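**Fold in tokens:**
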Amino acid sequence: MTRDEASPLVVVVEDDPATLRALGRVLRAGGFETATYSSAEAFLDSPPTREPSCLLLDNHLGGMSGLDLQRDLRSRGSRVPVIVMTAFNDRRVRNEAYRIGCAGCVDKADDFDVLLKLLRSVG
């Protein structure tokens, strides 16, 4: 497969190892390549070598939150689409995500098909 034919790369930043593994499996089965990170800081310290088509960020991470990471990336000029995940259907988080330029916000309880459809629409 040439670079032009490569599957879209989705970066997943999630601090729960089981959720990170599950998301990786679902995304690969959905036709995406994945790069996974257990923290925002790990992602910033060692970003992937190729431009991702989308970032999938857990909002509640141990250090910097997904929303904080989005703010930081935007301040650096990044225009990579970002989808924020939250375990809580929190309207404030959802509103803030859209206010700071996220392409989407999903609840972790949503069906994986919802996530895959959103990723295909933004990537």
Remarks:
- Residues 94 and 105 are 6 Å apart (CA to CA).
- The chain has one domain: 3-122.
